[in-house]
Amino acid sequence: MLIALLALSSFFTWAEDSVPPISLPDLGSPNRASFSQQQEDVLSLAFLEAVYQQADLITDPELNDYIRDIGAKLLRHVHSNRKFQFYIIKDDSINAFAGPGGIIAIHSGLILAAKREDELAAVMAHEIEHVQQEHLSRMFDNGKKGIIPTIAGLVGALLVGSQSPQAAMAMVMGGIGYSAQQQLAFSRDNEWEADRIGIDVLHAAGYDPNAMADFFDTLANRYRNDSKAPEMLMSHPVTGKRISDSRARARTLSLKTQTKTDSLDLAQIRLRQLLGQSQTLTDAKHICYQQHIAHNIEKQPLTAPSCNDLPKHLLSRLVLLQNKTPFNERAWQELIDLYPSNTAISLRYAQTLIDNNQTEKAIKQLMMFTNTVNERWAIWEPIARAWHSLGDDASEAYSMANAYASIGALTLAIIQIERAEKQATSPYQPQLKQHTETLKAQLLMQEKQRKAL
Questions:
Q1: Cα dihedral sign for 239, 242, 244, 247?
Q2: How many domains does the chain have?
Q3: Is residue 274 a part of any domain in this protein?
Q4: Helix%, strand%, coil% for the chain, nearest 5
Q5: Which of 232, 251, 270 is the last residue of a domain?
Q6: Which of 105, 163, 426, 432 is exposed most, by the fewest CB atoms within 10 A?
Q7: Peptide bond into 326 cis (omega under 30)
Q8: For 440, left (φ over 0), alpha (ψ -120 to 50), or beta?
Q9: How far is CA 190 from CA 23, 174, 333, 348, in A?
């Protein structure tokens, strides 16, 4: 059976176009008529479950919010009913990939390699368009079964490809026996389309349309003579004409005036600190921000206690508030009022409330996001931990069932929902039994739909 999956395809070339590329094949373009929205949703959850099982995901709320904010900015200019989800994988390789239903994974190495936010947004716009143009939909025979077991192998191939494209190609080819030569030719059309439309989306969102070609051209030049080139240069290299086509497309679009922000710089400082990587900073405000992160994450003392001259940015305000003692609830509420949809603020605030014995209030704060955030594990899992601290086993189990359901781990979700059924009714949630029955019915239906593929 053929099943579609596309790793991030790049636009690079080696010194000469005649050099044979090492590449992962693009596995399919869909006949949308034979691939329903329901099937895509089922496959999306299965793909997400495999990502959570196999990838080392970065869970830092601030970094995830940063990436998701870029995604939201791009998606405002994309006509889609998909619920896109954005994740960061802890991996030094410069790479990214997309999965069915709008799952976009960005490697930490890619974030650190970007010189400006426009370049990071360019990669994300490219990936979004792979999803939007149906490059990720499945080409399969409705009379055959067995799609779901293939998903885990394909995700594994994508992740293995970060270290060894040859091994990843072998996994994919061995798993489904598809023609690499045919798919390579087909994928170049996909890549050109994702380039072209992705540049339009990039421009519409206020980014530099030249950033797409700039980023990949810079990488190609940097690693031209390096035997250990990044995965993005090893998978789907194409001709120099592709880069020139991207530049030509960008020239047809007006360059909008941009306001320089510290967002990428601060995200990179935070990411390096989380990864334990050394960093040499020259900007005094950036040094101050790095010290506050170290104090917050690693409990390192501030070398300069009066270091409050940070960049004027939300990330600075948030880390200062986290480091402030004693707990200033009014200041937290003022920040939440300014940024009501920011999940990082609410997650940090909720944890601060729990630390100050206000767990019920923390749960109420987090519950506001359970239906508004696509990446719902980040909300339901801390809710479950909060219920555990209150000794409410039924509510904890129900929350963990929601958490597992949000990432497609249906078996674990059903175990938790059955655990919730066996517990006494919650003194905090009089409608818990009704909610539990509703969720169980949904889980059993999803399990049935998955088995049908």
A1: negative
A2: 2
A3: no
A4: 60, 5, 35
A5: 251
A6: 163
A7: yes
A8: alpha
A9: 14, 23, 47, 41
